[in-house]
UniProtKB/TrEMBL annotation:
<dbReference type="InterPro" id="IPR016185">
    <property type="entry name" value="PreATP-grasp_dom_sf"/>
</dbReference>
<comment type="similarity">
    <text>Belongs to the D-alanine--D-alanine ligase family.</text>
</comment>
<keyword id="KW-0963">Cytoplasm</keyword>
<keyword id="KW-0067">ATP-binding</keyword>
<dbReference type="InterPro" id="IPR005905">
    <property type="entry name" value="D_ala_D_ala"/>
</dbReference>
<comment type="function">
    <text>Cell wall formation.</text>
</comment>
<keyword id="KW-0547">Nucleotide-binding</keyword>
<feature type="domain" description="ATP-grasp">
    <location>
        <begin position="106"/>
        <end position="305"/>
    </location>
</feature>
<dbReference type="InterPro" id="IPR011127">
    <property type="entry name" value="Dala_Dala_lig_N"/>
</dbReference>
<dbReference type="Pfam" id="PF01820">
    <property type="entry name" value="Dala_Dala_lig_N"/>
</dbReference>
<dbReference type="InterPro" id="IPR011095">
    <property type="entry name" value="Dala_Dala_lig_C"/>
</dbReference>
<protein>
    <recommendedName>
        <fullName>D-alanine--D-alanine ligase</fullName>
        <ecNumber>6.3.2.4</ecNumber>
    </recommendedName>
</protein>
<keyword id="KW-0436">Ligase</keyword>
<dbReference type="InterPro" id="IPR011761">
    <property type="entry name" value="ATP-grasp"/>
</dbReference>
<dbReference type="GO" id="GO:0016874">
    <property type="term" value="F:ligase activity"/>
</dbReference>
<keyword id="KW-0133">Cell shape</keyword>
<dbReference type="InterPro" id="IPR013815">
    <property type="entry name" value="ATP_grasp_subdomain_1"/>
</dbReference>
Length: 311
């Protein structure tokens, strides 16, 4: 942004329509609080179907997009913002749509030389009836985040009936991937003028069981170790692959890449790229930013200053 930050009216989009609404409300509130005192005005906007009209009436100078999941993270809201010609934070229409589709993300990352898991898309009813690949494996929606609707099917387990239930709302096809034992890793990336810059690597250990929604967002649900205690070649590979993924997917602003590292077979696999990473008190990106000397207020300010809109 060319104007001084202190003169800007910033609308923070939060809440929204997806299954990740609760996380977005937390992310957005934290971002809004961080902006107060740094900008001229902060407007909190719970993004609904009337978003275009609300923003037309508000006339913000910049939008900080703190939405997560469908509609807010998949290119739809980004399209509204570009139609209104309001500069906004994070990735644009194409990158947002692409990264929300796990199958297409894998295809792009493979082409870019990034190792991704095997498996593929299957009809959810078939997955509920039989083991479509050998256990252990992971089932997850093809277009959700925050570990919503994710299941681990271990060796000896029956199929996951919930995937075929009438109240399943995450699409008719699900991603089924081999379970990769070992460490859960994450890397935040800032899209800077001279290219993507990975911050550090976090090793995430759930305090009990699987790294699910509760482990991600409940206080004490997981332990974060940063920088991760990894062999130097693995640490470096995670940084470089995150930067490569950010560039290959066409991301801008902040992204976060999630990995599994099999420390027995020495195999590092990138699971997915997040274009709207969480900004809650337990989130990974602000924690990594703080580790490299960028406080929460500085990070949020950077997001606003990085905002743009194609003309």
């Amino acid at each position: 942004m060319k104007r001084p930050l202190s003169e800007l009216h910033v609308a923070v989009l939060l809440g929204g329509l997806s299954s990740e609404r609760a996380v977005s409300l937390s992310s957005g509130e934290q971002c809004a609080l961080a902006l107060e005192g740094q900008v001229a005005r902060v407007s909190r906007v719970d993004a609904g179907r009337d978003l275009a009209q609300v923003l037309t009436d508000l006339k913000p100078d910049v939008v900080l997009n703190a939405l997560h999941g469908a509609w807010g993270e998949d290119g739809c809201v980004q399209g509204i913002l570009e139609t209104l010609q309001i500069p906004y934070s994070h990735s644009g229409v194409l990158a947002s749509a692409l990264t929300m589709d796990k199958a297409r993300t894998k295809a792009v990352l493979r082409q870019a030389g990034v190792e991704v898991p095997g498996g593929g898309l299957f009809d959810r009813h078939e997955v509920a009836r039989r083991h479509v690949i050998d256990p252990p494996y992971i089932i997850k929606p093809n277009a959700e985040g925050s570990s919503v609707g994710v299941y681990l099917v271990a060796e000896g387990d029956p199929t996951q009936a919930a995937v075929g239930a009438d109240d399943w709302t995450y699409g008719e096809q699900v991603m089924v991937e081999p379970y990769i034992p070992g460490k859960e890793l994450a890397v935040a990336v800032l899209g800077e003028a001279d290219g993507p810059r990975a911050l550090t690597v976090t090793d995430i250990t759930p305090t009990k069981g699987f790294y699910d929604y509760e482990a991600k967002y409940a206080p004490g649900g997981s332990v974060h170790r940063l920088p991760a205690d990894l062999p130097p070649h693995v640490f470096e590979a995670a940084l470089r692959q995150s930067e490569r993924a950010h560039a290959a997917m066409g991301c801008r602003g902040v992204s976060r890449s999630d990995f599994r590292y099999d420390d027995v077979k020495d195999v590092l696999v990138l699971l997915e790229v997040n274009t709207q990473p969480g900004m809650t008190p337990t989130s990974l990106v602000p924690e990594q930013a703080a580790h490299v000397g960028m406080g929460y207020r500085d990070l949020v300010r950077w997001m606003v200053e990085d905002a743009s809109c194609p003309r």
